[in-house]
Each structure stands twice: as C-alpha cells, then as structure tokens.
Specification:
Elements lengths: L9 H7 L11 H11 L4 H8 L11 E5 L4 E8 L10 H16 L10 H12 L5 E8 L5 H21 L6 E7 L1 H12 L4 E9 L3 E4 L4 E8 H11 L21 H11 L4 H4 L3 E5 L1 E7 L8 E12 L1 H9 L8 E8 L3 H11 L6 H6 L3 H13 L4 E2 L9 H4 L4 E2 L1 H11 L3 H6 L1 H6 L1 H7 L6 H26 L5 H10 L4 H11 L1 H5 L10 E2 L5 H9 L2 H4 L7 H5 L5 H19 L3 H10 E2 L2
C-alpha cells in the first residue's frame, strides 16, 4: 500500500500553477479553498478585505463575510512543505484564541488593523445578516481525528461566546478541519458537477418523461425515507453542483429549514403539496414500466449519479430528522444532460436561493448585451460576462482578465454618487430597477466601465502593497493611517466616489456627464490600472480625513458629504504642487 503522503492531488497541482495567488504567501492556500467553496470570481478583492494575518493577528488569518449567503468564516491556516498524515494540532487550538478575540474582546484591546473586520462581523451578527458562523482550520495535510477533536472544542467555545455576548442569537456554529481530502473534494466539484456516481434503483409514484435535443427529465415523487438515507450516506457530496449547501436548522419562525422540519413532523402526508421539491442532475436514467400495486410507489427507475441543484434545504431538513414518516413523499425532477452550457444554466436558474442569480437574470437584457459586444470589439483582451457568473468550472480555469460583474456594478454605483449602496447592496443593485438603471443605461459604455473598474482594481492593488509592507514593519505613520482606512468596509467605494466628485479638479475640465469619461487609448486592463497608480499616491493620504464616513458605516449622507468635501478641498489645494503628474493623467482621459 502506498504511503498516503505520496498521493498526488489535483487541487495541489492546480494551486501550484496559480501565479495570481503567490503574492498572498501563507494566505494563498486558504484563499484557494475559499474560492473553491464559495465559487468566488474575484479572489483578489476578497483577499484585500478578508486577510487579517500579520502583526498582532491574534491567531486569526482570515475573516470572510458573505452577507449574500449569510455566512461568516473565521480561518486559521497552515501549508506544509510535505503533506503529512496529520496537521499541526496547536494551529487548531489557536482558533480558541481567534474566536475569543473576534467575539468577545473589548474594542480598545483589539489591534487597530484587525478591529474594522471584527466589528464588521459583529455588526453583521447583531443585524441578523449572518445565519451560520464557520470556524475553519485549513491546511494541506490529511484530516485526523485528533485535529477534529480540537475543532469540536473550538466550536463549543464559539457557541458559548455567542450565547454570552450576543444574547438571543440563533446562529448555527460549524467548526471544521478542512484538510486535503475536503479541498480535493471541493476542487473536483468545481469541475465535475456530479460527485456521487453510484447507481441507484428508486421506487417512484410514477410521473412523466420529457425529452429535448440537449436534455431529458423525469418528474415524479419519491419516498422521503430514500432522501433521508442518501443524506446520511453522502452528506455534502449530494450538493456538488449546488453553490449553497444545507445551512442547518435554526429554531426561529422565520427560518425556512426549521419550517420544513416542522411540516415533516406534523403533516408528513401533505408534504408533497406543501414543498417545492428537489431538482437533481443525473448522469443517466432508465425508466421501467408501472406495476399494479396498492402502494403509491408503483414505478421503478434506475439512475446513475446524482447531484441536487435545488432543494438542498429540503434534503438537509429531511436528513436531520431521526426518522421520516412512511407517508412522506417528495416531489423530484431528475434531469440528464451532456451539454455543459445547459447544465450550467440548469444549476444557475434552479438555484433560486443563490443571491447572485439576480444579476444572472439581468445578463440577458439589451444593455448588458450591447456592453458585452462593445467589450469584444474594443477590449478583446478583457472578459466581461454582463451580470452572468462564470460556469462552475471557471473557478478552476480562471477566466483571464475577467472584469467582474458585481464589482463593476458596485464601482459604477459609487462613481455615480451612491457609495452607500455600493458598499451594502450588491444584489440590490441588480434587483432594484432604479439602482440598476442609474448605472446601466443607454449612456453606459464599455470604455466608461473600464475607466471606473480600473480605478477599483488599482485601489485594491495599492491596499495589498501596503498590507505586504506592514508585515515587514516598513510602513510610515502616514501609510499606517491609510492602511487603517482601507481596513474598513466600504473604504474603496468611498474613495471611488471621492475621485468622481473631484474629477473636474483633477482633469481641469467641466464634465457635463460622467458617463462620457473614459481613457483615450485602447490598452490592456493592467495598463489602465497603471494609469491610475500614477496619481493615487497624490491623493490617497487624504483618505484619513474621510474616516467619519466609515465610522458611520458609509450610511450617513451628511458624513459622506462632509468627507468628500474635505477630500476635494485637499486635492484642489495640492494640485499645483503635483501639476506635472496630474497633467500627464489628464492627457490620458477622454471626456465630453
């Protein structure tokens, strides 16, 4: 038998090729894991907001907050030069320290650069924007019961701290060791839609079969007991094609999972008509003839492989019960397709609980269609999907020079006067007609998007330079203030808004329509980012004067207005001394 340490893992091989992650050094591996699990398209931006590792990190490497899926993740990580049979157990124990600092420390005790992220997570918990808190020890060694035992202790500590410091909190806590086996599974699920590949014979209540050129479907009802058995046997593997796994049951009247369980327990015979059911992808399906039987289950089918793309909450609620009543029937659609694009669409449009599908539905409107055509014609080296997420395997392939739709929408929203919704309402920008049309309209051109998005990218990269420098104790006091500013949620969108409001002073021209602003020459995205980097150092120190707007979470209009006015006045006062660099930038800009 081969030594486990000699096994080759596809996830490791792919990770080694990821040059874009190397800049993050010790945090590269946990970022890779986050990217796989949450299907993140712009990992660089997530890195800029989530990494807490550095001086005085209090044993916490990353804090990831996903308000769209109502998840918060506290991460400690370790990457071994050689994969071993067990990771360092003390790193798992360190998470006790991390959760203590994150959930219970007094604000004045928390290191300055760590404080904004901790407060953001705490506020999200208080505002009921988090349903599940994950505490993860991410490493590249084999998973081991000793490490998981430590993680169970960490989980209990986190639960106790939530109960003590967040009275009435109903947040589910999940503490896990995320070793190479789990990451390999996540990697496989990003490229192979179906991880459970066994063959199953299922008794059904009969149904109807429909077939088209690229797909076929059998719609039926099956026993809840079969779903219960499958969940117990395969757990999360059942949801390999589903972005949102089962979150668990929180006992509040507003929680959908708890409601499903209540129905299963109190009215099992009515569950068939009370529940929306399950949609599952299969590799193959064979349907037998109906039999004469007094049982409602009178037609057998054989399926090969299964992944539930809609109904994860229903499946998890059934699986969480000790027993399922004999009368419980579940409506199910089994879909077979070999067409990759069709499969991606099935996943996307069936998974209604995935917040980003709001932008998916915008991806087909005429504005997005026109802008996508402009990108292809004017900026062929860039990839703009127009609101549509990449396919699930795009996480592995990494779309080159991707202009990320969500960050485009948020950056445009900030640039055109609304840093509040840019910071707090990512999905709302796509869902609300007024917010959407304010930034995506007949005046929105690909060239303008590139102008604004490259500003966003340049700020993200500037922040990363400061973070790297801080680890080497190389920051000046002014740079420390700037990095502290960048540590707050909404800081980048506030600066984008400030630059927009100061644009006339920067280019010394009257701007009648900001939508007309773009760069003159057709360049690569990296070259546009470099254009901005020439002038960012001239005004970035003024960000310290906008702290008041961040203290009020970029939600108070008067604080934002006051901060922007201070920023503008400082740019005006110093433009003369920086005339050459500002004038060089002005020559690059096209305006009405």
């Amino acid at each position: 038998m081969n030594d486990l340490t000699d096994v080759k893992f596809s996830s490791i091989e792919n990770f080694k090729k990821r040059n874009d992650l190397k800049v993050y050094k010790s945090e590269a591996w946990p970022l890779f894991a986050l990217e796989l699990y949450f299907r993140i398209e712009n990992i660089q931006y997530i890195a800029s907001t989530s990494i807490t590792d550095g001086k005085n990190d209090r044993k916490c490497d990353l804090i990831y907050i996903d308000k769209e899926n109502k998840r918060g993740v506290i991460i400690q990580s370790y990457f071994a030069e050689k994969i071993s049979k067990i990771a360092k157990t003390n790193k798992a124990s360190d998470l006790n320290t991390a959760v203590g600092w994150v959930l219970s420390s007094h604000e004045e005790q928390i290191p300055k650069l760590l404080l904004p992220r901790i407060l953001e997570l705490r506020n999200a918990i208080l505002d009921d924007e988090i349903e599940q808190l994950d505490v993860w020890y991410i490493h590249n060694c084999h998973e081991h019961s000793r490490v998981q035992s430590e993680m169970e202790i960490v989980g209990e500590s986190a639960k106790a701290l939530l109960e003590r410091h967040f009275s009435g909190s109903t947040i589910k806590v999940s503490s896990k060791e995320i070793g190479i086996e789990t990451i390999e599974e996540w990697y496989d699920s990003s490229s192979a839609k179906i991880l459970v590949t066994d063959e199953f014979e299922i008794e059904t209540a009969g149904g109807y079969f429909t077939q088209k050129d690229t797909w076929e479907v059998f719609s039926t009802a099956i026993s809840g007991k079969w779903i219960h058995k499958m969940f117990k046997q395969y757990d999360e593997k059942l949801f390999s094609a589903n972005i949102r796994n089962y979150l668990g049951s929180i006992n509040t009247k507003y929680n959908i999972n708890n409601g499903i369980k209540t129905t299963l327990l109190t009215e099992p015979s009515n569950f068939l008509v009370f529940n929306n059911g399950i949609t599952a992808l299969v590799n193959d399906i064979e349907i037998s003839k109906k039999t004469r039987s007094q049982s409602p289950l009178n037609q057998k089918i054989i399926i090969s492989g299964i992944s539930i793309v809609n109904g994860a909450q229903t499946t998890g609620a059934i699986g969480a019960l000790e027993e399922v009543d004999e009368t419980t029937l579940i409506p199910v659609r089994f879909i077979k397709s070999k067409d990759g694009e069709v499969i991606d669409s099935i996943i996307r449009f069936n998974n209604s609980q995935n917040a980003v599908t709001v932008s998916d539905f915008r991806s087909t409107d005429f504005i997005q269609d026109r802008v996508k055509k402009e990108f292809k014609a004017e900026f062929p080296t860039m990839n703009y999907l127009g609101g549509r997420r990449g396919g699930t395997d795009d996480v592995i392939k990494r779309i080159k020079n991707l202009v990320v739709s969500d960050q485009v929408a948020q950056s445009l929203t900030a640039f055109h006067g609304n840093p509040t919704d840019a910071t707090h309402s990512k999905s709302k920008i796509w869902a609300n007609d007024d917010l959407y049309s304010n930034v995506f309209n007949e005046n929105t051109k690909a060239s303008h998007i590139v102008f604004v998005y490259s500003l966003f990218k340049s700020l993200v990269e500037y922040k990363q330079v400061l973070k790297d420098k801080s680890k080497e104790n190389g920051l000046t006091s002014s740079e420390e203030d700037i990095l502290n500013f960048f540590s707050y949620a909404g800081s980048i969108y506030l600066i984008i808004n400030a630059v927009s409001e100061t644009l006339e002073e920067i280019i010394e021209r009257k701007v009648s329509s900001k939508f007309s602003i773009s760069f003159k020459e057709s360049l690569t995205l990296e070259e546009y980012v470099e254009n901005w980097k020439e002038i960012i150092p001239l005004f970035i120190s003024f960000s310290a004067h906008m702290k008041e707007a961040l203290d009020s979470k970029v939600k108070v209009h008067e604080d934002i207005k006051k901060s922007i006015e201070q920023f503008r006045s400082l740019v005006v006062a110093t433009r003369g001394s920086n005339k050459e660099k500002y004038d060089n930038f002005k020559k690059l800009v096209k305006y009405n």
